[in-house]
Amino acid sequence: MFSWINVRYLEKVLFLATKNPIQALNREEFIPNLSYDSVIFGFNGKQLKILILQYHNTGLFALPGGFVKRNESLDNAVKRGVKERTGLDQVYLEQFRTFGSLTRSDPSAMKRVLEGNNLDVEAHDWLLDRFISVSYYALINYDEVAPVPDELSDSIDWYPIDGLPDLMMDHKKIVDQALQFLRDNLEKKLVGINLLPSKFTMKQLQEVYEAILGEELRRTTFQRRILGMNILERHEKLFQGKAHKAPYLYSFKSNNAIKSQEEQIIT
Amino acid sequence: MFSWINVRYLEKVLFLATKNPIQALNREEFIPNLSYDSVIFGFNGKQLKILILQYHNTGLFALPGGFVKRNESLDNAVKRGVKERTGLDQVYLEQFRTFGSLTRSDPSAMKRVLEGNNLDVEAHDWLLDRFISVSYYALINYDEVAPVPDELSDSIDWYPIDGLPDLMMDHKKIVDQALQFLRDNLEKKLVGINLLPSKFTMKQLQEVYEAILGEELRRTTFQRRILGMNILERHEKLFQGKAHKAPYLYSFKSNNAIKSQEEQIIT
């Protein structure tokens, strides 16, 4: 009969076996030559940040990415990856571009990643081949996330968009295009809401816009435009001591942001 | 010594050998499980149309698409396909979405296409596998194009967007999303310009906008907004008989539309 400790031990062994990279990256399981990369944005109240992982024993920094299993949809592969990294499964996720140049793959860097993880390079040579990558961006509420490194990586950490380490392959370009896409969609889709808790002040919302656009906005103009869009519901005041100065809390009227996500990602 | 006729004959044999679908769809030459589809828009002065091909002996209608060679970039694969179908190589081309659901592929339809072309199904079984498809839309000047069917197809023809035949697989959904993407980008990128000759009247431009948006616009409002954007250069009048009523011709100021294309498609 198993003691509780034995059960925990068994669970751990099974967990490690499941997480074994050699098993996890079995070439038969995945569609070859196709990967995804995710630009996961969070906002800490001041700065727009993204999640960057560092591979074991290589000094290489990269976007969290992965491969598509033969029996899962592209969108589900990305949802799975984001959930594994952030623990969140209700995430605003939108595909923005597929990168397919001949020069984007970097076999020597991938070889370093394999060697840094003590993996047999020959057994994983399909990873040294050319990859076309479908890129997604995700917007998450910074406070709800405890990033988890994957089995190949030392760490996964938040970096401010203006203070990124050197990224491998074309990942800097992917980040730049994600940011451009986010800016282009800020008005149309109100995506900024997804970076905030469900109730927020007008000042917090303005700070999100400013962080994404990289510029300061006039408070009165911003407030007039946002309220004119008739998308916010006003709640109680946020009391912080000085009651007469307490700002109102707002929420997004209907769950349009998530709705627009569902439309987007069912492909 | 070859007579001129012999040379022409030899050229024809070589051409047919190159065009032989068995050779053209050699599995070794292409990235597996990945295809592209193109939604090629044209405007005949009244309606927005797209190019649809019909496969030999199947009754199946589809978007022009194809596969990516191992030694060419994704963008170049699509450019090659559009050039083969339309003869044009300066085309406004933009990637808009990658479709990756598990249910999108239709092996039975692909089998009919192979059989309809008297091709060995077993030798082409990689085509019956799952495909993730990167979709692009193209905007071309209708008058400059003489569509050419590919080797698997009977015909390629223009169909108005509100009068499409039943399309195979998820191609109707791809068309719908392309149209939505085009509408969303109409203001931001002025893409409509690409559907017109280099010089056009304000009325022609308005008709393009109306065809894309599927609604009538007020002439005075439209003209004020477009001229207010300060993007058009005014040329001589288009004389058609009644000189005092002749409309001005306009062109796009700098080649921004093509520039924005170059930015977009270098991935």
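qc> Chain B is about 35% helix and 25% strand.
qc> done
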